[in-house]
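Q: I have 263 residues here and want to know how they pack in 3D. Can you give me a structure?
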Amino acid sequence: MPVSFATLLYDLDAASGILTITVNRPDKLNALNAATIEDIGSAFMQAQDDAQVRGIVLTGSGEKAFVAGADIAELAGLDVLAARKASERGQEIFGRIEESRKPVVAAVNGFALGGGCELAMACHMRIAADNARFGQPEVNLGLIPGYGGTQRLAQLVGKGKAIELLLTADMVKADEALRLGLVNHVVPQAELLDFSRQLLARILGKAPLAVGLCLDSVNAYYDQQRHGYQTEAQGFGRCFASDDFKEGTTAFLEKRPAAFTGN
């Protein structure tokens, strides 16, 4: 019997074998807090162990946001050690998505910012609604991405463009994300889930063992660079000791421009 989740909807279509996991915090634009990240980890573990699940669509509730970012109020209360542990835990759970031997498609509706962009990038493929927006705005808060964003963004769009997006915190529209290789397809909002499920259905008509081995083989190339994730987690933690992080998060919560000092 599937377990229910406080922050997710878990809907398996037994006929097709396609599981739809929906981040369901629409009042918070589906922002990631610790409980949501743990639910995502548990849901993917459950999916891997369920022989009825053959492929997974991951999306967000409503039309405004896939996942609009992390829960800044929660992050603001962390110290250096807790922040590094949170980063490592998020990396572990997002790695669970990436390493799934069942194909995972992110159906990105609306904003996919910060942790939401990182979550989408952990999926094997990304389908964007025409209203989707992507970005890693962490530097606006005196932070860096902590759930693999510095690594996967470079893998998907190349080093130079990844650095530009990370350092400027620029938001990318769906058509630009397609041009950069950040997403696989852009479709009208109303067609997003149907298109994503149709793509999965095509894949599920292939040999399951071969599909899983393709995913393993592609991921193996990037396993040579695992130290990058450790560097990211260390850097994420270090940010929490800075005055700029305190100023950035306080300014965000107070809805005012931040005045950074570099300390």
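Q: Anything worth noting?
A: The chain is about 50% helix and 15% strand. The mean pLDDT is 94.
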